[in-house]
Design goal:
The complex is a heterodimer of chains A (151) and B (446).
Chain A: H1 8-21, E1 25-30, E2 33-38, E3 77-79, E4 84-87, E5 103-104, E6 109-115, E7 118-123, E8 128-133, E9 139-141, E10 146-150
Antiparallel strand pairs in A: 1-2, 3-10, 4-6, 4-9, 5-8, 6-7, 8-10
Chain B: E1 4-7, H1 11-23, E2 27-33, H2 40-44, E3 47-52, H3 63-73, E4 77-79, H4 89-97, E5 101-102, H5 107-114, H6 116-125, H7 142-152, E6 156-164, E7 167-172, H8 178-193, E8 198-202, E9 208-216, E10 222-234, E11 237-243, H9 250-267, E12 271-280, E13 283-290, H10 297-304, H11 308-316, E14 333-340, E15 352-353, E16 356-358, E17 365-369, E18 376-377, E19 384-392, H12 395-408, E20 410-412, H13 418-424, H14 428-432, H15 439-445
Parallel strand pairs in B: 1-2, 1-4, 2-3, 4-5
Antiparallel strand pairs in B: 6-7, 6-8, 9-10, 9-12, 10-11, 11-14, 12-13, 14-19, 15-18, 16-20, 17-19
Classes of the chains: A mainly beta (151), B alpha+beta (446).
């Protein structure tokens, strides 16, 4: 049947937009003509509340590396053995020793720390993947400050 | 004037230097070991740098770490405090070589006065009276040593040239024990100071320890700030100090003051310094010169009104003294009492957590300390935790005030020597000022 006042093309267009976008309702209007297409709400999947038991014992989840307080005790932390200025490459302009994501071997040079005009290489205490670099090129470091994390 | 000073020390003296810097508008950098992360000196400073693990040799004596801390903070000058590296000539050189001003005398003067035999010879040539002795280090020939000791007259003292501060000395009562004492002293000196050079000195009986404070700028202006009497000592460590000395009259004071000023002027010395003497039977005998600020400097500050650490910084920055000897006035009397975290009877160190802390106050009471409630006194460093300094119009007023102040002082959680000091202050010899450097040891033996 034809209904001259009903814009079927618009309805079909809106319906396919609903599908594509996953929206449940679209309403368009022009002047005092309004067109609304809605999807019947699916049976709400009520998410059963997950009861998280607070594990107050040894199995404490390691917080994400972004949130944790990184100090010398953090697993895999390589702390500075001296005071000075940390550099990430052997000289200005040269490629960096390592970057995040690299896999390093034990003994591999990670940083140079300069103090009293001498350059002191900081070597990996063991092999692993560089999870995070804590100090930028040219940053001052204290004794015990974390330079990077090796997983 | 300096923009930024790195304070190469810890505890109460680091706080003291910080205060003087602050009042001069200078920013401060504290250095600290991991054990001192929560120490007051690290907290009050504008910046702090962790320089090493707890042992002093890896932190407060770690020259590269201290210099590096100065580099990364862009300090202009380094103040060494007392103890640690304050009289280490090599440190003073390295500081200057790296472009920092060392707040103290030249490395050469530190070295000169650090060698106790050379110091004695130097000041003798500058007109100061010295203890009769071997005139220089002892050679390997024991017959020579015997002859010298015979000439001086027993009892004698064998002393390490690299010692000082009361360490590295042995008493010898007769020729019978001379050789074994010298051999023993050499061995101990080698172990403690890395140098077995020794010299002999007459043992002055029952002397007082009287020291004269001087201050010199870079332009040859020198003044003395009076004397301090530090005769109350245990194992050569000072426990109580006062200014002026009850044993000197005005004429003696002026005479020794002028002789000391003249000697320091001839030396071309700069900064603060203290010339230490033994005083017996009206005679002064030079024993050593300390080329740093001393623990007991506050008693001199109390009677002169002059901030010695501020003056140190000013003259190191190249300022002239700005006043003459005649303009220095002395007012009243002052006594300082050193409070240690030690058992008050055995003096055994008592580190631990300061559970309760309430220092005394009131007119004429000053407390220099880095303690606070909840602070944990670490076991790695010396046990001095506070100095109580009282100032009064006369000595009796000071004694009353010091007793009152110590009674008020609350420190719980660790043992302190406050009860020991309270007992001391009721001893008739202390009340009368009639004591000498062996007085305390004699009292404890009886």
């Amino acid at each position: 049947m034809s209904h001259p006042d009903i814009d079927f093309d618009a309805i079909r267009a809106l319906a396919s937009i609903l599908d594509e976008t996953g929206l449940s309702e679209i309403e368009v209007g022009e002047g005092d003509r309004r067109l609304r297409v809605a999807r019947a709400p699916a049976a709400a999947a009520i998410a059963a509340p997950v009861i998280r038991s607070v594990v107050a014992d040894d199995a404490a989840a390691v917080p994400s590396i972004e949130d944790a307080v990184i100090d010398a005790g953090y697993p895999g932390a390589v702390a500075s053995p001296m005071v000075g200025t940390a550099y990430r490459s052997p000289e200005p302009g040269a490629p960096q020793f390592v970057k995040e994501g690299d896999t390093v071997n034990e003994g591999q040079t990670l940083f140079i720390i300069e103090a009293m005009k001498t350059m002191n290489p900081i070597r990996a205490p063991r092999g692993g993947r560089i999870a995070r670099i804590m100090k930028e090129n040219g940053a001052p470091v204290e004794f015990g400050e974390v330079l990077l994390i090796i997983e | 004037m300096f923009d930024k000073v790195l304070i190469a020390n810890r505890g109460e003296i680091a706080v003291r230097v910080h205060r003087a810097c602050r009042e001069l508008g200078i920013r401060t950098v504290a250095i600290h070991s991991t054990a001192d992360a929560d120490a007051m000196h690290a907290r009050v400073a504008d910046e702090s740098v962790c320089i090493g693990p707890p042992p002093a040799k890896d932190s407060y004596l770690n020259i590269p770490a201290i210099i590096a801390a100065g580099e990364i903070t862009n300090a202009d000058a380094i103040h060494p405090g007392y103890g640690f590296l304050s009289e280490n000539a090599e440190f003073a050189s390295i500081v200057e070589e790296h472009g920092f001003t060392f707040i103290g005398p030249t490395a050469e003067h530190i070295r000169m006065m650090g060698d106790k035999a050379r110091a004695k010879e130097t000041v003798q040539n500058l007109g100061l009276p010295v203890v009769p002795g071997s005139d220089g280090p002892l050679g390997p020939d024991m017959a020579d040593a015997k002859a010298i000791a015979g000439e001086i007259g027993y009892p004698v003292l064998v002393k390490a040239v690299s010692g000082g501060g009361g360490r590295g000395m042995k008493r010898i009562d007769s020729a019978d024990t001379l050789i074994e004492s010298i051999v023993g002293a050499r061995a101990e000196s080698k172990a403690a100071f890395g140098d077995d050079t020794v010299y002999l000195e007459k043992l002055v009986e029952r002397p007082r320890h009287i020291e004269v404070q001087i201050l010199a700028d870079n332009f040859g202006n020198v003044v003395h700030l009076g004397e301090r009497d530090c005769s109350i000592q245990r194992r050569h460590q000072k426990l109580l100090e006062e200014a002026p000395s009850p044993a000197l009259n005005k004429a003696q004071r002026e005479d020794i003051g002028q002789r000391v000023v003249h000697a320091v002027q001839e030396l071309g010395y700069r900064g603060v310094g203290t010339i230490e003497f033994l005083f017996a039977d009206g005679e002064f005998y030079f024993i050593e010169m300390n080329t740093r600020i001393q623990v007991e400097h506050p008693v001199t500050e109390a009677i002169t009104g002059i901030d010695l650490v501020r003056e140190q910084i000013r003259v190191a920055a190249g300022a002239p003294l700005g006043y003459t000897q005649e303009e220095i006035t002395f007012s009243g009397h002052a006594i300082e009492c050193r409070v240690n975290a030690e058992d008050p009877e055995t003096f055994r160190p008592s580190p631990g957590c300061i559970a309760g802390y309430h220092p005394p106050g009131g007119l004429g009471v000053r407390v220099d300390s880095a303690m606070y409630q909840g602070y944990v006194v670490p076991p790695f460093y010396d046990s001095l935790i506070a100095k109580v300094i009282v100032h009064g119009t006369n000595r009796n007023e000071c004694l009353m005030r010091l007793r009152r102040a110590l009674d008020e002082y609350v420190i719980t959680g660790v043992e302190t020597t406050i009860p020991f000091h309270l007992k001391l202050l009721s001893e008739p010899d202390v009340v009368n000022g009639t004591y000498d450097i062996q007085w305390l040891e004699r009292e404890r033996e009886s």
